[in-house]
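Fill in residues.
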């Protein structure tokens, strides 16, 4: 306290969440099964009921309500024979948005705490993330800052048996995946020979941007979705970087100032879009042998294929 009574102690930031063992697991595997806080669990149950009603509607209605934009990055999108999904990146109107807003807020709180756990464990400042999370911890009201805000909430319907996602790592900071049934698999690296195992309950995945910023002190979580005879629903919240401000790598133990957007564009440009239609995925794969798998691809390559 100063003499005029004003508290000069900086706010303490999100409180620690994970145990040391959980942090080690997340850093080594790139994924972690996690118990959800009650409020988030409740918000997810409500949203998944509304998602059921949304997906029951005709495709034309769904597309009209949520016209696809930004390639596969916003709105309703169908991959014929495999899956359909609704990506929310902003919005105020409607029941679905209100429920999405609650899930977004609670999920972002959770993932922010986990990001801070990672930097704390590495001996870095928890505020290293602040500029990367600006305007991203709540569902944006509109798309006016949409070139900088890259986080998203996605509701998936995988069709019985054929609904899949090829193996990939996500491009952002951290992703939370909650599925209604088996299908999501993660790469278990604890054995001599890595193997695919079924995700048990909600999973947090490290994305390629977090891995890059943390200079490979955490691994990005390799995962895939395999077909399930009953089909599968999932809700995915991807906390991705806010692109407007440069990032000082010294906050993560590195050196120099980088253009956050350039860095993220490089990451997303290297990958092909696992949620695009089959022919687009194949074309993107062929276009460069160097492409690795991602949950988002070069924007131009997917425009016009929805
Ligand atoms: O549906 C899921 O649980 C995961 C989907 C996924 O990995 C993705 O879209 O990046
Ligand atoms: Fe993914």
């Amino acid at each position: 306290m100063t003499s005029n009574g004003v508290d000069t102690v900086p706010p303490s930031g999100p409180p620690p969440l994970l145990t040391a063992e959980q942090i080690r697991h997340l850093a080594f595997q790139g994924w972690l099964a996690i118990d959800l806080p009650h409020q988030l669990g409740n918000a997810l149950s409500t949203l998944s009921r509304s998602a059921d009603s949304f997906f029951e509607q005709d495709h034309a209605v769904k597309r009209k309500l949520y016209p696809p934009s930004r390639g596969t990055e916003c709105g309703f999108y169908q991959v014929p024979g495999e899956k359909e999904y609704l990506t929310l990146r902003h919005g105020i109107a409607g029941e679905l948005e209100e429920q999405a807003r609650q899930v977004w807020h609670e999920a972002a709180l959770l993932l922010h705490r986990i990001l801070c756990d990672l930097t704390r464990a590495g001996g870095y400042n928890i505020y290293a993330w602040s500029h990367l999370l600006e305007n991203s911890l709540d569902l944006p009201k509109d798309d006016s800052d949409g070139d900088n805000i890259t986080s998203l909430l996605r509701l998936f319907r995988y069709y019985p048996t054929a609904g899949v996602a090829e193996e990939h790592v996500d491009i952002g900071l951290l992703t939370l995946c909650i599925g209604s049934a088996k299908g999501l698999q993660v790469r278990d690296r604890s054995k001599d020979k890595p193997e695919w195992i079924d995700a048990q309950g909600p999973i947090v995945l490290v994305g390629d941007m977090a891995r890059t910023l943390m200079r490979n002190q955490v691994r990005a979580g390799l995962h895939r979705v395999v077909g399930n005879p009953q089909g599968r629903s999932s809700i995915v919240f991807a906390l991705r970087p806010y692109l407007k401000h440069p990032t000082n790598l010294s906050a993560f133990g590195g050196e120099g100032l980088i253009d956050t957007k350039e860095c993220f564009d490089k990451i997303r440009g290297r990958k092909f879009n696992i949620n695009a239609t089959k022919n687009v995925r194949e074309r993107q794969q062929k276009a460069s042998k160097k492409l690795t798998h991602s949950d988002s691809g070069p924007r131009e390559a997917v425009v016009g294929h929805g």
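The radius of gyration is 19 Å.
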